[in-house]
């Protein structure tokens, strides 16, 4: 087996590996779509919470693991998205998948605005600043303006 055959075999394996990953992703997505019809609602809520915690863990890994910043603001952005989607769905009667997507858009805009200011801070100042924003958003969420 010469060098060109080895390269061709490596490219074929890479393509086959990618194809297998796509196939597994489609199967997992199909199982997640069928999950509410197969199992009881409690297990569905546990799986849903599991994926939320996976997303939080990955966000923590990206922020702390790669940049070294300690970020306490993940729940702020989740709260912005949750409040925005709840207000859009309940008060304005928007279809819930669109409300969820718009909640994500609002959370992204909030993260962009807060990040443009907070990412200028370094070290423990960043951690303290994000903690202050987290506590302030908790106080804001319990005011009469945002609660029904």
UniProtKB/TrEMBL annotation:
Pfam family, one: BPD_transp_2
Keyword annotations: Cell membrane, Membrane, Transmembrane, Transmembrane helix
GO molecular function: branched-chain amino acid transmembrane transporter activity
Protein name: Branched-chain amino acid ABC transporter permease
Transmembrane regions listed in the UniProt entry: 20-39, 45-62, 69-90, 96-119, 126-146
Membrane topology: Multi-pass membrane protein
Subcellular location(s) per record: Cell membrane
Main subcellular localisation: membrane
GO cellular component: plasma membrane
Originating organism: marine sediment metagenome
